[in-house]
Amino acid sequence: MDEERRVTDLVTVYVTQGLLQANVIRGALESAGIPAILKYESIGPTIGLTIDGIGRVEIRVPMKWEKEARDLLTGEPRHGEHFSGPLDDRD
């Protein structure tokens, strides 16, 4: 019996505190056709803490999508678009 191959070639493209911003970023990536998952400790959402690393959320994408994800998150919006990348990465 063949075992299914697990996806292990994920790379973190952004780290934030709390699920709210992480879900917005994941949604932006997915709307651009880039698959994304969130990696976080389950205790953070359970008790609502976002301090001392408990609320840390990593947005991860398959390695083959890393460049496109980083370009989307750091790029300037096109004329007429309202979406922009995470504000804390900008000057």
Describe the structure.
- With 91 residues, this protein is of the alpha+beta class.
- It has a domain of 49 residues.
- The chain is globular.
- The mean pLDDT is 77.
Provide the gyration radius in Å.
15 Å
Order of helices and strands: EHEHEH
What class would the helix/strand composition place it in? alpha+beta
What's the number of helices? 3
- Strands across the major sheet, in which order? 1-3-2
Q: The biggest beta sheet, please?
A: 3 strands, antiparallel
Query: Based on CA inertia axes, which overall geometry fits?
Result: globular
Global mean pLDDT = 77
Strand content: 15-25%
Low-pLDDT sequence parts: none
Report the helical percentage: 25-40%
Total number of β-strand segments? 3
N- and C-termini, Cα separation: 54 Å
List key phrases describing it.
single chain, alpha+beta, 3-stranded antiparallel β-sheet, 30% helix, 21% strand
